[in-house]
Amino acid sequence: MKLVTVFHRFLRSSFTKCTNRTFTKIGILTSMMFSLYAFIMYIPDFQKEPRPMVHPFSKTLKFLRSNGAVHPDDLGVMEGMSHEEKLKAMLSLREGINQIFNECLISSKYDHCNSPQPNNDQPILTLFTTWIYDEEKFFINNNTLYNWRKLSGVNLVVFTNDAKVKDYSEKAGWLVLPIGTTVAGDAPVLKQMFHTVQQQFKTDFYGYSNGDLLFEEGLYKTLKKIACQMNETIHTKPLLIVGKRTNINAEILDSGVVTSGQKMQKHAVTFGSLFNADALDFFITNYVFPWQDFLPLAIGRRGYDNWVVSIARYWNYTVIDVTDSVLALHQTLLERGNFEGLHKPFNNYNLDMIASQDISIRYGLWGQTHCAEWQTWFDMCGRVALTQRKNIKSDCFMKKTFFQKLFNFREPL
Ligand SMILES: *[C@@H]1O[C@H](CO)[C@@H](O)[C@H](O)[C@H]1NC(C)=O
Ligand SMILES: *[C@@H]1O[C@H](CO)[C@@H](O)[C@H](O)[C@H]1NC(C)=O
Ligand SMILES: *[C@@H]1O[C@H](CO)[C@@H](O)[C@H](O)[C@H]1NC(C)=O
User: Fold this and answer.
1) So where does this one cross the membrane (predicted)?
2) CA-230 nearest atom, ligand 1
3) Which ligand is in closest contact with the Cα of 315?
4) What is the predicted pLDDT for the residue at 163?
Protein backbone atom coordinates (compact mmCIF):
# COMPACT_ATOMS: atom_id res chain seq x y z
CA MET A 1 0.00 0.00 0.00
CA LYS A 2 3.01 2.29 -0.27
CA LEU A 3 1.84 3.56 -3.58
CA VAL A 4 -1.45 4.67 -2.07
CA THR A 5 0.32 6.58 0.71
CA VAL A 6 2.57 8.31 -1.76
CA PHE A 7 -0.41 9.19 -3.83
CA HIS A 8 -2.24 10.62 -0.78
CA ARG A 9 0.70 12.78 0.11
CA PHE A 10 1.04 13.95 -3.41
CA LEU A 11 -2.66 14.82 -3.50
CA ARG A 12 -2.54 16.70 -0.21
CA SER A 13 0.53 18.68 -1.20
CA SER A 14 -1.09 19.56 -4.50
CA PHE A 15 -4.19 20.69 -2.70
CA THR A 16 -2.40 23.02 -0.33
CA LYS A 17 0.05 24.50 -2.81
CA CYS A 18 -1.87 24.89 -6.00
CA THR A 19 -4.63 27.03 -7.28
CA ASN A 20 -7.92 25.45 -8.25
CA ARG A 21 -7.02 25.31 -11.92
CA THR A 22 -3.74 23.54 -11.56
CA PHE A 23 -5.42 21.28 -9.04
CA THR A 24 -7.94 20.23 -11.71
CA LYS A 25 -5.12 19.63 -14.19
CA ILE A 26 -3.22 17.53 -11.70
CA GLY A 27 -6.46 15.73 -10.81
CA ILE A 28 -7.05 14.78 -14.44
CA LEU A 29 -3.42 13.79 -14.86
CA THR A 30 -3.41 11.61 -11.78
CA SER A 31 -6.68 9.94 -12.64
CA MET A 32 -5.17 9.13 -16.02
CA MET A 33 -2.13 7.72 -14.28
CA PHE A 34 -4.38 5.68 -12.06
CA SER A 35 -6.25 4.27 -15.06
CA LEU A 36 -2.95 3.38 -16.67
CA TYR A 37 -1.84 1.71 -13.47
CA ALA A 38 -5.09 -0.25 -13.24
CA PHE A 39 -4.74 -1.23 -16.88
CA ILE A 40 -1.18 -2.46 -16.38
CA MET A 41 -2.23 -4.44 -13.32
CA TYR A 42 -4.99 -5.97 -15.39
CA ILE A 43 -2.58 -7.35 -17.99
CA PRO A 44 -1.07 -10.37 -16.27
CA ASP A 45 2.27 -10.11 -18.10
CA PHE A 46 2.98 -6.66 -16.72
CA GLN A 47 1.77 -7.45 -13.27
CA LYS A 48 4.97 -8.73 -11.79
CA GLU A 49 8.64 -8.60 -12.45
CA PRO A 50 9.56 -11.93 -14.06
CA ARG A 51 10.78 -14.00 -11.16
CA PRO A 52 12.59 -17.34 -11.52
CA MET A 53 9.77 -19.82 -11.00
CA VAL A 54 10.27 -22.49 -8.36
CA HIS A 55 8.34 -25.49 -9.60
CA PRO A 56 6.80 -27.59 -6.79
CA PHE A 57 8.61 -30.62 -8.19
CA SER A 58 12.00 -28.98 -7.75
CA LYS A 59 11.26 -28.41 -4.06
CA THR A 60 10.37 -32.06 -3.66
CA LEU A 61 13.60 -32.99 -5.41
CA LYS A 62 15.51 -30.84 -2.91
CA PHE A 63 13.85 -32.74 -0.09
CA LEU A 64 14.67 -36.11 -1.65
CA ARG A 65 18.27 -35.09 -2.30
CA SER A 66 18.62 -34.34 1.41
CA ASN A 67 17.74 -38.03 1.85
CA GLY A 68 14.73 -36.93 3.85
CA ALA A 69 16.99 -35.73 6.67
CA VAL A 70 15.75 -32.13 6.63
CA HIS A 71 12.26 -31.39 7.92
CA PRO A 72 9.97 -30.50 4.99
CA ASP A 73 9.04 -27.24 6.73
CA ASP A 74 12.67 -26.16 6.67
CA LEU A 75 12.74 -26.60 2.89
CA GLY A 76 9.31 -25.04 2.31
CA VAL A 77 8.25 -28.24 0.53
CA MET A 78 4.73 -28.39 1.88
CA GLU A 79 3.81 -24.73 2.01
CA GLY A 80 0.13 -24.06 2.39
CA MET A 81 -0.75 -27.51 3.74
CA SER A 82 -2.35 -28.03 7.13
CA HIS A 83 -0.40 -29.95 9.76
CA GLU A 84 -2.70 -32.94 9.29
CA GLU A 85 -2.20 -32.93 5.53
CA LYS A 86 1.56 -32.77 6.02
CA LEU A 87 1.55 -35.85 8.24
CA LYS A 88 -0.53 -37.76 5.70
CA ALA A 89 1.68 -36.64 2.81
CA MET A 90 4.84 -37.70 4.67
CA LEU A 91 3.38 -41.12 5.36
CA SER A 92 2.40 -41.62 1.78
CA LEU A 93 5.80 -40.42 0.54
CA ARG A 94 7.55 -42.84 2.91
CA GLU A 95 5.43 -45.73 1.69
CA GLY A 96 6.06 -44.78 -1.93
CA ILE A 97 9.81 -44.67 -1.46
CA ASN A 98 9.80 -48.03 0.30
CA GLN A 99 7.81 -49.51 -2.55
CA ILE A 100 10.36 -48.23 -5.04
CA PHE A 101 13.14 -49.86 -2.98
CA ASN A 102 11.35 -53.18 -3.03
CA GLU A 103 10.54 -52.88 -6.69
CA CYS A 104 14.17 -52.18 -7.59
CA LEU A 105 15.65 -54.83 -5.34
CA ILE A 106 13.19 -57.67 -5.63
CA SER A 107 11.02 -57.60 -8.71
CA SER A 108 13.85 -57.06 -11.19
CA LYS A 109 14.81 -60.65 -10.44
CA TYR A 110 11.49 -61.79 -11.87
CA ASP A 111 11.20 -59.42 -14.80
CA HIS A 112 13.28 -61.08 -17.49
CA CYS A 113 13.23 -57.96 -19.68
CA ASN A 114 15.07 -56.04 -17.01
CA SER A 115 17.57 -58.55 -15.71
CA PRO A 116 21.12 -57.49 -16.62
CA GLN A 117 22.06 -58.70 -20.09
CA PRO A 118 25.46 -59.93 -21.14
CA ASN A 119 26.93 -57.58 -23.73
CA ASN A 120 28.66 -60.16 -25.85
CA ASP A 121 25.66 -61.63 -27.60
CA GLN A 122 24.63 -61.24 -31.23
CA PRO A 123 24.29 -57.80 -32.77
CA ILE A 124 20.82 -56.42 -32.27
CA LEU A 125 21.08 -53.43 -34.61
CA THR A 126 22.48 -52.73 -38.07
CA LEU A 127 23.19 -49.01 -38.04
CA PHE A 128 24.06 -47.16 -41.22
CA THR A 129 24.82 -43.64 -42.29
CA THR A 130 26.18 -41.67 -45.17
CA TRP A 131 28.29 -38.52 -45.12
CA ILE A 132 30.16 -36.28 -47.46
CA TYR A 133 33.83 -35.47 -47.00
CA ASP A 134 34.08 -31.83 -46.00
CA GLU A 135 37.42 -30.77 -44.58
CA GLU A 136 35.93 -28.36 -42.08
CA LYS A 137 33.38 -30.89 -40.84
CA PHE A 138 35.51 -34.00 -41.02
CA PHE A 139 36.41 -34.05 -37.32
CA ILE A 140 32.69 -34.38 -36.58
CA ASN A 141 32.22 -37.41 -38.83
CA ASN A 142 35.44 -38.85 -37.43
CA ASN A 143 34.02 -38.52 -33.91
CA THR A 144 30.98 -40.47 -35.10
CA LEU A 145 33.13 -43.19 -36.66
CA TYR A 146 34.81 -43.90 -33.33
CA ASN A 147 31.80 -43.22 -31.11
CA TRP A 148 29.57 -45.77 -32.82
CA ARG A 149 32.32 -48.37 -32.67
CA LYS A 150 31.98 -48.23 -28.89
CA LEU A 151 28.30 -49.20 -29.03
CA SER A 152 27.26 -52.70 -27.99
CA GLY A 153 25.60 -55.07 -30.41
CA VAL A 154 25.83 -53.10 -33.65
CA ASN A 155 26.87 -53.76 -37.26
CA LEU A 156 28.13 -50.51 -38.76
CA VAL A 157 27.71 -49.53 -42.39
CA VAL A 158 28.53 -46.35 -44.29
CA PHE A 159 27.17 -45.76 -47.77
CA THR A 160 29.51 -43.77 -49.97
CA ASN A 161 31.05 -43.50 -53.41
CA ASP A 162 33.79 -41.19 -52.14
CA ALA A 163 37.31 -42.59 -51.82
CA LYS A 164 38.21 -40.53 -48.74
CA VAL A 165 35.05 -41.44 -46.83
CA LYS A 166 35.62 -45.09 -47.75
CA ASP A 167 39.21 -44.95 -46.59
CA TYR A 168 38.56 -43.32 -43.21
CA SER A 169 35.55 -45.52 -42.51
CA GLU A 170 37.35 -48.74 -43.29
CA LYS A 171 40.27 -47.68 -41.10
CA ALA A 172 37.80 -47.24 -38.27
CA GLY A 173 36.50 -50.76 -38.89
CA TRP A 174 33.23 -50.07 -40.69
CA LEU A 175 31.71 -51.88 -43.63
CA VAL A 176 31.54 -49.58 -46.68
CA LEU A 177 28.85 -50.08 -49.31
CA PRO A 178 28.36 -48.09 -52.53
CA ILE A 179 25.40 -45.76 -52.93
CA GLY A 180 23.10 -47.08 -55.64
CA THR A 181 20.78 -44.49 -57.06
CA THR A 182 21.22 -40.84 -56.16
CA VAL A 183 18.59 -38.15 -56.52
CA ALA A 184 18.24 -34.43 -55.80
CA GLY A 185 21.89 -33.72 -56.51
CA ASP A 186 23.80 -36.65 -54.96
CA ALA A 187 21.40 -37.64 -52.20
CA PRO A 188 20.88 -41.35 -51.49
CA VAL A 189 17.36 -42.76 -51.21
CA LEU A 190 16.40 -43.75 -47.67
CA LYS A 191 14.34 -46.82 -48.42
CA GLN A 192 16.95 -48.22 -50.79
CA MET A 193 19.62 -48.19 -48.14
CA PHE A 194 17.30 -49.92 -45.69
CA HIS A 195 16.63 -52.58 -48.31
CA THR A 196 20.35 -53.13 -48.89
CA VAL A 197 21.31 -53.57 -45.23
CA GLN A 198 18.35 -55.86 -44.60
CA GLN A 199 19.68 -58.18 -47.28
CA GLN A 200 23.20 -58.14 -45.84
CA PHE A 201 22.50 -58.57 -42.15
CA LYS A 202 20.08 -60.42 -39.92
CA THR A 203 19.35 -58.30 -36.84
CA ASP A 204 16.22 -57.39 -34.91
CA PHE A 205 16.60 -53.71 -35.83
CA TYR A 206 17.87 -51.65 -38.75
CA GLY A 207 18.63 -47.99 -38.29
CA TYR A 208 19.63 -44.93 -40.26
CA SER A 209 21.25 -42.02 -38.47
CA ASN A 210 22.84 -38.81 -39.68
CA GLY A 211 26.61 -39.06 -39.61
CA ASP A 212 27.05 -36.29 -37.04
CA LEU A 213 25.21 -37.90 -34.12
CA LEU A 214 26.86 -39.55 -31.12
CA PHE A 215 25.15 -42.26 -29.06
CA GLU A 216 25.81 -44.05 -25.80
CA GLU A 217 24.57 -47.20 -24.07
CA GLY A 218 21.02 -45.85 -23.72
CA LEU A 219 20.49 -46.95 -27.31
CA TYR A 220 21.44 -50.56 -26.68
CA LYS A 221 19.50 -50.77 -23.41
CA THR A 222 16.43 -49.30 -25.05
CA LEU A 223 16.50 -51.63 -28.03
CA LYS A 224 17.00 -54.63 -25.75
CA LYS A 225 13.99 -53.57 -23.74
CA ILE A 226 11.82 -53.08 -26.82
CA ALA A 227 12.93 -56.40 -28.31
CA CYS A 228 12.04 -58.15 -25.08
CA GLN A 229 8.76 -56.48 -24.16
CA MET A 230 7.49 -56.41 -27.75
CA ASN A 231 8.90 -59.79 -28.69
CA GLU A 232 5.76 -60.65 -30.66
CA THR A 233 5.43 -57.31 -32.42
CA ILE A 234 9.01 -57.00 -33.61
CA HIS A 235 8.72 -60.16 -35.68
CA THR A 236 5.24 -59.62 -37.01
CA LYS A 237 4.24 -55.94 -37.15
CA PRO A 238 5.96 -52.83 -38.50
CA LEU A 239 7.72 -50.85 -35.82
CA LEU A 240 9.42 -47.46 -36.00
CA ILE A 241 11.70 -45.93 -33.38
CA VAL A 242 12.52 -42.21 -33.38
CA GLY A 243 13.78 -39.56 -30.98
CA LYS A 244 14.82 -35.98 -30.60
CA ARG A 245 18.43 -34.99 -30.79
CA THR A 246 20.39 -32.88 -28.29
CA ASN A 247 22.44 -30.12 -29.89
CA ILE A 248 25.89 -29.40 -28.61
CA ASN A 249 28.77 -27.25 -29.85
CA ALA A 250 31.13 -29.67 -31.61
CA GLU A 251 34.21 -27.65 -30.60
CA ILE A 252 33.92 -28.60 -26.94
CA LEU A 253 33.97 -32.36 -27.56
CA ASP A 254 37.33 -34.10 -27.48
CA SER A 255 37.98 -37.76 -28.20
CA GLY A 256 37.78 -38.50 -24.45
CA VAL A 257 34.19 -37.32 -24.41
CA VAL A 258 32.99 -38.94 -27.62
CA THR A 259 34.11 -42.38 -26.50
CA SER A 260 32.71 -42.17 -22.97
CA GLY A 261 28.97 -42.44 -22.42
CA GLN A 262 29.21 -40.94 -18.95
CA LYS A 263 31.09 -37.88 -20.14
CA MET A 264 28.63 -37.46 -23.00
CA GLN A 265 25.74 -37.50 -20.54
CA LYS A 266 27.41 -34.85 -18.38
CA HIS A 267 28.18 -32.64 -21.38
CA ALA A 268 24.64 -33.02 -22.67
CA VAL A 269 23.10 -31.92 -19.39
CA THR A 270 25.51 -29.02 -18.94
CA PHE A 271 25.99 -27.67 -22.48
CA GLY A 272 23.36 -29.33 -24.65
CA SER A 273 19.81 -28.45 -25.57
CA LEU A 274 17.02 -30.64 -26.93
CA PHE A 275 16.10 -29.77 -30.48
CA ASN A 276 12.68 -29.44 -32.12
CA ALA A 277 10.17 -32.29 -32.15
CA ASP A 278 9.87 -32.10 -35.93
CA ALA A 279 13.54 -32.53 -36.78
CA LEU A 280 14.35 -36.22 -36.78
CA ASP A 281 17.87 -37.43 -37.36
CA PHE A 282 17.60 -41.15 -36.84
CA PHE A 283 15.10 -43.89 -37.65
CA ILE A 284 15.17 -47.46 -36.47
CA THR A 285 12.79 -50.07 -37.86
CA ASN A 286 12.36 -53.83 -37.65
CA TYR A 287 12.69 -56.37 -40.43
CA VAL A 288 9.01 -56.44 -41.39
CA PHE A 289 8.74 -52.65 -41.72
CA PRO A 290 7.44 -52.24 -45.29
CA TRP A 291 9.94 -49.74 -46.68
CA GLN A 292 8.90 -50.84 -50.17
CA ASP A 293 5.55 -49.06 -49.65
CA PHE A 294 7.19 -45.72 -48.86
CA LEU A 295 7.99 -42.92 -51.27
CA PRO A 296 11.59 -42.95 -52.58
CA LEU A 297 12.52 -39.89 -50.54
CA ALA A 298 16.00 -38.41 -50.50
CA ILE A 299 18.04 -38.36 -47.33
CA GLY A 300 19.03 -34.97 -45.99
CA ARG A 301 16.42 -33.02 -47.97
CA ARG A 302 13.55 -31.42 -46.12
CA GLY A 303 10.43 -33.32 -45.19
CA TYR A 304 11.53 -36.95 -45.42
CA ASP A 305 11.75 -37.37 -41.67
CA ASN A 306 8.26 -36.11 -40.85
CA TRP A 307 6.77 -38.03 -43.74
CA VAL A 308 8.11 -41.37 -42.50
CA VAL A 309 6.80 -40.83 -38.97
CA SER A 310 3.44 -39.48 -40.05
CA ILE A 311 2.75 -42.29 -42.52
CA ALA A 312 3.82 -44.92 -39.99
CA ARG A 313 1.32 -43.38 -37.56
CA TYR A 314 -1.35 -43.04 -40.22
CA TRP A 315 -1.02 -46.74 -41.08
CA ASN A 316 -1.21 -47.62 -37.38
CA TYR A 317 2.29 -49.01 -37.09
CA THR A 318 3.90 -49.14 -33.67
CA VAL A 319 5.85 -45.90 -33.24
CA ILE A 320 8.11 -45.39 -30.24
CA ASP A 321 9.68 -42.11 -29.09
CA VAL A 322 12.94 -42.94 -27.33
CA THR A 323 14.04 -39.36 -26.54
CA ASP A 324 13.95 -39.91 -22.77
CA SER A 325 16.21 -42.97 -22.78
CA VAL A 326 18.45 -42.49 -25.83
CA LEU A 327 20.90 -39.62 -25.89
CA ALA A 328 21.49 -38.60 -29.51
CA LEU A 329 24.09 -35.89 -29.29
CA HIS A 330 24.18 -33.73 -32.39
CA GLN A 331 27.55 -32.09 -33.00
CA THR A 332 26.77 -28.61 -34.23
CA LEU A 333 29.34 -26.68 -36.20
CA LEU A 334 28.67 -23.24 -34.78
CA GLU A 335 29.33 -21.24 -37.95
CA ARG A 336 26.73 -23.36 -39.77
CA GLY A 337 24.18 -23.61 -36.98
CA ASN A 338 21.40 -26.09 -36.29
CA PHE A 339 19.44 -25.47 -39.46
CA GLU A 340 22.32 -26.32 -41.78
CA GLY A 341 20.14 -28.95 -43.45
CA LEU A 342 17.80 -26.30 -44.82
CA HIS A 343 20.36 -24.92 -47.26
CA LYS A 344 21.08 -27.87 -49.51
CA PRO A 345 20.59 -28.10 -53.27
CA PHE A 346 17.19 -29.33 -54.46
CA ASN A 347 15.90 -28.83 -50.97
CA ASN A 348 12.26 -29.08 -52.03
CA TYR A 349 12.74 -32.42 -53.77
CA ASN A 350 10.91 -34.38 -51.09
CA LEU A 351 8.35 -31.66 -50.39
CA ASP A 352 7.30 -31.65 -54.03
CA MET A 353 7.00 -35.42 -54.18
CA ILE A 354 4.96 -35.42 -50.98
CA ALA A 355 2.71 -32.60 -52.19
CA SER A 356 1.69 -34.78 -55.14
CA GLN A 357 0.24 -37.35 -52.73
CA ASP A 358 -3.46 -37.38 -52.11
CA ILE A 359 -3.48 -37.66 -48.37
CA SER A 360 -5.66 -35.97 -45.79
CA ILE A 361 -3.23 -35.56 -42.91
CA ARG A 362 -1.00 -32.62 -41.98
CA TYR A 363 2.17 -34.68 -42.08
CA GLY A 364 4.39 -31.95 -40.61
CA LEU A 365 2.30 -32.15 -37.45
CA TRP A 366 1.68 -35.91 -37.46
CA GLY A 367 5.40 -36.50 -37.82
CA GLN A 368 6.56 -34.98 -34.53
CA THR A 369 8.35 -37.16 -31.99
CA HIS A 370 5.84 -36.45 -29.21
CA CYS A 371 3.06 -37.85 -31.38
CA ALA A 372 4.45 -41.38 -31.02
CA GLU A 373 2.03 -43.63 -29.18
CA TRP A 374 4.77 -45.32 -27.16
CA GLN A 375 7.67 -43.87 -25.24
CA THR A 376 10.70 -45.17 -23.39
CA TRP A 377 12.18 -43.62 -20.26
CA PHE A 378 14.26 -44.55 -17.22
CA ASP A 379 12.21 -45.61 -14.22
CA MET A 380 13.17 -45.01 -10.58
CA CYS A 381 15.36 -48.10 -10.61
CA GLY A 382 17.30 -46.80 -13.63
CA ARG A 383 15.77 -49.40 -15.93
CA VAL A 384 14.30 -48.63 -19.31
CA ALA A 385 10.51 -48.50 -19.18
CA LEU A 386 8.34 -48.79 -22.30
CA THR A 387 4.83 -47.41 -21.88
CA GLN A 388 1.94 -46.06 -23.90
CA ARG A 389 1.39 -42.31 -23.77
CA LYS A 390 -1.79 -41.35 -21.92
CA ASN A 391 -2.16 -37.96 -23.60
CA ILE A 392 -1.21 -37.22 -27.16
CA LYS A 393 -1.59 -33.60 -28.26
CA SER A 394 -4.46 -32.89 -30.61
CA ASP A 395 -2.21 -31.36 -33.29
CA CYS A 396 -0.81 -34.87 -33.79
CA PHE A 397 -4.13 -35.74 -35.45
CA MET A 398 -4.71 -32.59 -37.50
CA LYS A 399 -6.29 -33.17 -40.91
CA LYS A 400 -6.10 -30.84 -43.89
CA THR A 401 -9.00 -28.46 -44.28
CA PHE A 402 -11.11 -28.42 -47.41
CA PHE A 403 -9.17 -25.45 -48.79
CA GLN A 404 -5.78 -26.90 -47.95
CA LYS A 405 -6.72 -29.96 -49.95
CA LEU A 406 -8.19 -27.95 -52.78
CA PHE A 407 -5.09 -25.81 -53.28
CA ASN A 408 -2.66 -28.67 -52.84
CA PHE A 409 -1.18 -26.89 -49.89
CA ARG A 410 2.50 -27.56 -49.22
CA GLU A 411 3.17 -27.78 -45.52
CA PRO A 412 5.28 -24.95 -44.11
CA LEU A 413 7.89 -27.19 -42.51
C1 LIG B 1 7.35 -62.42 -24.96
O2 LIG B 1 6.89 -61.35 -24.14
C3 LIG B 1 5.92 -61.69 -23.20
C4 LIG B 1 5.50 -60.40 -22.51
O5 LIG B 1 6.58 -59.62 -22.13
C6 LIG B 1 6.48 -62.74 -22.25
O7 LIG B 1 5.49 -63.12 -21.32
C8 LIG B 1 6.96 -63.96 -23.05
O9 LIG B 1 7.56 -64.88 -22.20
C10 LIG B 1 7.94 -63.54 -24.13
N11 LIG B 1 8.30 -64.65 -24.97
C12 LIG B 1 9.55 -64.91 -25.28
C13 LIG B 1 9.76 -66.07 -26.22
O14 LIG B 1 10.49 -64.30 -24.84
C1 LIG C 1 39.88 -39.76 -35.90
O2 LIG C 1 39.58 -40.02 -34.54
C3 LIG C 1 40.42 -40.99 -33.95
C4 LIG C 1 39.88 -41.32 -32.58
O5 LIG C 1 39.67 -40.18 -31.82
C6 LIG C 1 41.85 -40.47 -33.94
O7 LIG C 1 42.70 -41.42 -33.38
C8 LIG C 1 42.27 -40.16 -35.37
O9 LIG C 1 43.55 -39.56 -35.40
C10 LIG C 1 41.29 -39.24 -36.05
N11 LIG C 1 41.62 -39.16 -37.45
C12 LIG C 1 41.88 -38.00 -38.05
C13 LIG C 1 42.27 -38.08 -39.48
O14 LIG C 1 41.75 -36.94 -37.48
C1 LIG D 1 -5.91 -46.89 -37.78
O2 LIG D 1 -6.66 -46.97 -36.58
C3 LIG D 1 -7.75 -46.05 -36.54
C4 LIG D 1 -8.35 -46.12 -35.15
O5 LIG D 1 -8.49 -47.42 -34.73
C6 LIG D 1 -8.73 -46.41 -37.67
O7 LIG D 1 -9.81 -45.51 -37.64
C8 LIG D 1 -8.00 -46.33 -39.01
O9 LIG D 1 -8.86 -46.75 -40.05
C10 LIG D 1 -6.76 -47.19 -39.00
N11 LIG D 1 -6.00 -46.93 -40.21
C12 LIG D 1 -5.55 -47.87 -41.02
C13 LIG D 1 -4.81 -47.42 -42.24
O14 LIG D 1 -5.71 -49.08 -40.79
Assistant:
1) 26-43
2) 2
3) 3
4) 96
Distance CA(200)–CA(124), nearest Å, equals 14
Q: Say if residues 167 and 238 touch (Cβ distance below 8 Å).
A: no
CA of 248 to the centre of ligand 3 (A): 39
Per-residue confidence (pLDDT) for residue 233, from 0 to 100: 94
Which among 107, 226, 231, 237 is the best mutation to test ligand 1's pocket, defined by most ligand atoms within 8 Å of the CB? 231
User: Which pairing describes strands 205-209 and 187-188: parallel, antiparallel, or unpaired?
Assistant: unpaired
Residue 374 has a pLDDT of: 97
Cβ 316 under 6 angstroms from ligand 3: yes
CA 102 – ligand 2 centroid, Å: 46
Q: Are 354 and 400 in contact (CB under 8 A)?
A: no
Residue 79 pLDDT: 84
Q: Beta partners for 375?
A: 321, 387
For residues 161 and 260, give the distance between their C-alpha atoms in angstroms, rounded to a whole number: 31
- Going from the first residue of the chain to its last (413 residues), give the mean pLDDT of each consecutive group of 10, the final group possibly shorter: 45 44 60 60 52 72 83 84 91 90 77 64 93 93 95 95 96 95 88 95 96 95 94 96 93 88 90 84 96 90 88 96 95 79 76 82 88 94 93 90 72 59
* DSSP annotation string for 253-311: --HHHHT-HHHHHHHHHHH-EE--TT---EEEEETT--GGGS--PBTTSTTHHHHHHHH
Strand residues in 290-394 grouped as ranges (E): 318-321, 329-332, 374-378, 384-388
DSSP code string of 192-225: HHHHHHHHH---SEEEEE-TTEE--THHHHHHHH
Q: What is the DSSP letter of 144?
A: H
What is the pLDDT, as a whole number, of residue 207? Answer: 97
> Torsion angle of alpha carbons 227, 280, 406, 313, nearest 10°?
10
Ligand 3, atom 3: nearest CA belongs to which residue?
Answer: 316
